[in-house]
Write a structure and sequence with these properties.
The structure holds three protein chains of three kinds. By secondary structure, chain A is α/β, with parallel strands linked by helices. Chain A has nine helices and ten strands. The longest helix of chain A has 17 residues. By secondary structure, chain B is mostly helical. Chain B is built from 15 helices and four strands. In chain C, about 50% of the residues are buried. Chain C has a single domain, classed as ABC transporter involved in vitamin B12 uptake, BtuC, CATH 1.10.3470. In chain C, strand 3 and strand 4 form a beta hairpin. In chain C, helix 4 packs across helix 11 and helix 12 crosses helix 13. Classes of the chains: A alpha/beta, B mainly alpha, C mainly alpha. Chains B and C meet through helix 6, helix 12 and helix 15 of B and helix 6, helix 12 and helix 16 of C.
Chain lengths: ~250, ~350, ~400
């Protein structure tokens, strides 16, 4: 059963055909990696999934509903959460407040004019946020300013914020970019834990093959805006087409 | 037909001023990324350069003229400007008469110096701060500058006439074959438009054809890369600030015969010039110039009796109305680049 | 208390006490003394303190929390004033309906302006709001003269309909009141050399200000307030967290527009007249100055900023050369003239210069405004006391 169905998606920027006829099917509760060389259109594809871009052609169905033409916040409310390449958090707010915001989004929807009740009176939200912080091992930092966190902590916080919404699909855009080896391995373990402990589908865009082969159950290879193959990791490893795409003519 | 020509002509001088101020604003914004609310004050200070020079030139000492007597029968005391002593009466009179154009020479060093001082002394420290802070600090600076001028020159407008040779009007109508006196246009406004064209052309040529300008344009497009090439872009940007200040100042000098300068003229023009910049597209020099002239002419058309009969009051709001429509339909303005100030 | 934390309740109580005792606090100098001109405890100025305090509190809800810098908020104040004066002309001189209608009308107007302006952010938003305000000003000045009275503005007249009030006698002036208590009514208390004035209008405005202040604390501390801070901090993340920033910012815009309308209505309630200059962009700039000067995004900052600017406008501006000479008369003549010459540009008509300099200094050195200055000083003192105690503790370890 696939939770995300991308069919015939194309996107053009002026003279550049960034995506053409992309088909992709992400199975529910799997970890699906999208890999490809630079400029293959990975980020463009991701932006088409979350509502930042609208594809020129094709369809994107999430759980049987089209996401096309919906704003990012609507798509998120449908159950897709996104983790950015550089952590996007609320730097001016405390760690706890950062965690509370997605909890509000989960409980109250896209907009709620709750201007009079006090913040700390929101017992259920506070509890939920505290719980998530504990799970992310960040409870001791709850009153720190988020901007002051280390990069690794920002990444954890961002993932935690996404998880507190209980999304059905978690999209990660090169979550280990620029990380040291140890941090990368920590992130891999974190993502494995996340996947093992809940009903969640993870789609990950990644450059680092170590990350990809440690996590993915299914891999799509993009090259020049179009999918080359979609297969299981063991089959991707030896695939000559993939080698060629990565190493180019110089191989 | 003649009414239309007249309105276009009428719009040109105001449009010239808008275009010159907007050009300077855009230079500063494009090179330094700073939203300069004190730019109107630079225009105003330019105008007061003209006032100052004409006051210096008319500094005089009292001479007793024995050949004439006043109404009490005493020898007449005459105020004789020092320039008469230096250059003789005829040349002296001509110099005083030409005070406004001469002020251009006086204003250039003053304005460049002031611009460089502003950039090094204040603006430099705000590159890394949010745009709102830049707006606020330059807004504060504008208040300070205009209050200083008010302290020294008072609150009333100071008439500063054009040279005698340019007083009076040119009968455009007659020249174009219409009846005489239908389209008459003051000489000085023609001068102002020509002056604006020359300055704008000069700035563009400078940016287009000199190495200095090329580097600055490259820096406007991608500051980091230019710096990586080992070019000291900061010093050039400082000079660009000086240039922008000079453009505003000169626009102010030449505007004095059209409107007697007062201390708040800068703010009056600034508000509109910002609208002009936004309509033209933040960061686009041709956009700023185009929008300046377009809005100037549009404003003058909106002041026509025919138009006012149909849409009363439209002349008061036309520029703002256009700005709102443009911002909503073409967020980047007429010629704006993508991604400028959209944070 | 009142659903606030201890700290916020404390702040509210302090502000309440200061506001209610303002006639005493602002008149520290005896009548007729040399310093009496620094007394700010007269009704007209005290009313301005609290009314512009309301204006700035509202502005801060938009600018302080969301970071959207509006350069056109005076338009809402003006619209509120016009609405209030029409209420007084048509319905009754009782200020209550006037104030209520001013809030509603300003709310509707800000909804329209905000709905359009908030399609852009950053400087574009600032220019859009500026454009709307300047348009309102220009229209009020010219075309809308039948509604606004043009350049001369509006005030209640004897022969206005006022359907709820009894007809006024010929020659009588319509006076603003609340259920019969006239706004201009004052009670003077003479204590020795001191004269304290308790004015009905001031106390009405002060009570409204306290309510407005209380409401703003609630908003700051609510989930809604947190969302607004999140808008300022990272709109992208907010969007990808399933929250729509647009209605949040629009709600903040409308709330702050209603605060501005409330201030406009109260201005009319205190002084029953209005003219278009109230909407000019310098008036919008003034509320920006107040908020930043006091401390944007802080609770009490805008009130302090409003107070400081109105104090300077009314008190500093009255100091002329004679007053200065009087002050420095104890100095030798040459020195006296010299000092007076130095000080003079900054006071009297030059008070704007002082304002501009203070404002620049605040933006450059104290982005948090007066409140940050206060906090820094407080920290300095705390550190000093700590310095005294900590060495004693560490000594044994050495």
């Amino acid at each position: 059963m696939s939770i995300l169905e991308v069919k015939g998606v194309g996107k053009r920027f002026g003279g550049l055909q960034a995506l053409s006829d992309v088909n992709l099917s992400v199975r529910e509760n799997s970890v699906h990696a999208i890999i490809g060389p630079n400029g293959a259109g990975k980020s463009t594809l991701l932006n088409c999934l979350v509502g930042k871009l609208i594809p020129d052609t094709g369809s994107v169905m999430f759980d049987g509903q089209s996401v096309l033409g919906r704003a990012p916040y609507e798509i998120n409310q449908m159950g897709i959460s996104r983790v950015f390449q550089t952590p996007e958090i609320f730097g001016d707010l405390t760690v706890l407040e950062n965690m509370m915001i997605p909890c509000f989004a989960k409980r109250d929807g896209a907009f709620e004019l709750n201007a009079i009740p006090s913040m700390m009176g929101q017992k259920d939200i506070v509890e939920r946020a505290e719980h998530m912080l504990t799970e992310m091992n960040m409870a001791d930092k709850r009153h720190d300013h988020a901007a002051a966190l280390s990069r690794g902590d920002k990444r954890r916080l961002e993932i935690g914020m996404c998880l507190s919404q209980e999304p059905r699909l978690l999209l990660l855009d090169e979550p280990t970019a620029g990380m040291a080896r140890a941090d990368t391995n920590n992130t891999i373990d974190l993502l494995k834990d996340i996947h093992d402990s809940r009903d969640i589908t993870i789609a990950i865009i990644e450059h680092d093959m170590h990350v990809v082969f440690s996590l993915a159950q299914r891999i799509t290879v993009l090259a020049q805006g179009t999918p080359l193959v979609e297969d299981d990791p063991e089959n991707i490893r030896g695939n000559p087409k993939v080698r060629e795409a990565y190493l180019g003519e110089s191989a | 037909m003649e009414a239309i020509i007249l309105q276009i002509l009428n719009g040109l001088d105001k449009g010239s001023a808008y275009a010159l101020i907007a050009l300077g604003l855009t230079l500063i914004f494009g090179t330094l990324g700073v939203v300069n609310f004190a730019h109107g004050a630079l225009f105003m200070i330019g105008a007061f350069c003209a006032v100052t020079l004409s006051r210096i030139l008319t500094l005089s000492h009292t001479v007793i003229d024995d050949t004439k007597t006043d109404f009490l029968g005493q020898p007449l005391k005459v105020e004789v400007p020092y320039v008469y002593d230096m250059f003789g009466q005829a040349t002296g009179e001509a110099i005083i008469d030409w005070a406004v154009p001469l002020s251009l020479l006086f204003a250039i060093p003053v304005m460049v110096g002031l611009g460089v001082l502003m950039e090094r002394g204040l603006i430099k420290h705000f590159y890394k701060r949010p745009h709102a802070d830049q707006i606020l600090v330059t807004f504060g600076l504008a208040i300070v500058l205009q209050e200083i001028i008010k302290y020294f020159y008072g609150a009333n407008p100071i008439p500063t006439p054009a040279p005698d040779a340019f007083r009076g009007s040119f009968d455009f109508g007659a020249a174009l074959g219409f009846d005489p006196n239908l389209i008459i246009y003051p000489y000085w406004r023609i001068i102002y438009f020509a002056f604006a064209t020359v300055v704008i052309g000069g700035v563009f040529a400078f940016l287009q054809f000199t190495t200095f300008g090329m580097v600055v344009r490259a820096g406007m497009a991608d500051r980091e890369t230019v710096q990586l090439l080992g070019i000291n872009i900061d010093r050039r940007f400082t000079l660009m600030f000086g240039l922008a200040a000079a453009v505003a100042g000169l626009a102010g000098v030449m505007y004095t015969p059209i409107n007697s300068p007062n201390y708040h003229m800068g703010m009056d023009f600034l508000v509109l010039s910002f609208v002009v910049v936004v309509v033209g597209g933040m960061g686009s020099l041709p956009g700023a110039v185009l929008a300046g002239f377009l809005l100037g002419i549009l404003e003058s058309f909106a002041s026509m009796g025919v138009v006012l009969n149909i849409l009363p009051g439209i002349n008061q709001i036309i520029i703002y109305l256009v700005a709102i429509v443009i911002l909503l339909t073409r967020p980047r303005g007429l010629m704006g680049r993508k991604g400028v100030m959209e944070d | 208390m009142f659903g606030l934390t201890k700290k916020d309740t404390g702040l509210l109580i302090v502000v309440a006490i200061l506001t209610l005792l303002a006639p005493f606090i602002l008149n520290p100098f005896p009548e007729g003394s040399a310093m009496a001109q620094f007394n700010a405890g007269y009704p007209d100025l005290m009313q301005r303190f609290v009314i512009f305090g309301i204006f700035a509190i509202g502005f801060n809800i938009l600018f302080g929390l969301t970071g959207y810098l509006s350069f056109g908020h005076a338009a809402f104040l003006g619209v509120g004033s016009y609405a209030a004066i029409w209420m007084m002309k048509l319905l009754t001189m009782n200020v209550l309906p006037a104030i209520i209608i001013s809030v509603l009308v300003a709310g509707l107007f800000s909804l329209a302006v905000g709905w359009i302006s908030l399609r852009r952010s950053g400087i574009y938003f600032s220019i859009l709001t500026l454009a709307f305000a300047q348009m309102s000003y220009a229209l009020a000045y010219s075309v809308l003269t039948p509604i606004t009275g043009g350049e001369t503005g509006l005030q209640p007249k004897v022969d206005d309909p006022r359907i709820l009030d009894a007809a006024l006698a010929e020659g009588a002036t319509p006076k603003a009141n609340i259920f019969g208590l006239q706004m201009g009514q004052s009670f003077d208390l003479q204590l020795g050399g001191w004269l304290f004035t308790f004015n009905a209008g001031y106390y009405l405005a002060a009570v409204v200000m306290l309510l407005a202040f209380y409401l703003s604390i609630r908003i700051f501390r609510s989930p809604f307030g947190m969302m607004l801070r999140a808008v300022k901090s990272n709109q992208q993340r907010l969007n990808y967290t399933g929250l729509n920033p647009k209605p949040y910012t629009l709600a903040a815009f409308v709330i702050s527009g209603m605060y501005a309308g409330l201030a406009g209505g109260l201005l009319v309630a205190m002084d029953t007249q209005v003219g278009p200059e109230r909407m000019f962009w310098t008036a919008s700039g003034e509320v920006v100055l107040m908020t930043i000067l006091g401390g944007a995004a802080t609770l009490i900052g805008p009130v302090l900023g409003a107070g400081l600017i109105k104090y300077m406008e009314n008190i500093l501006s009255k100091i002329n050369k004679d007053v200065l000479h009087q002050w420095f008369a104890f100095l030798p003549d040459g020195l006296e003239d010299f000092i007076v010459a130095i000080v003079y540009p900054f006071v009297g008509k030059g008070w704007h210069l002082t304002l501009g300099l203070i404002f620049m200094a605040v933006v450059i050195f104290l982005p948090g405004g007066l409140v940050e200055a206060g906090q820094r000083i407080a920290r300095l003192f705390r550190r000093k006391t700590q310095d005294k105690t900590t060495p004693a503790k560490t000594e044994p370890a050495e």
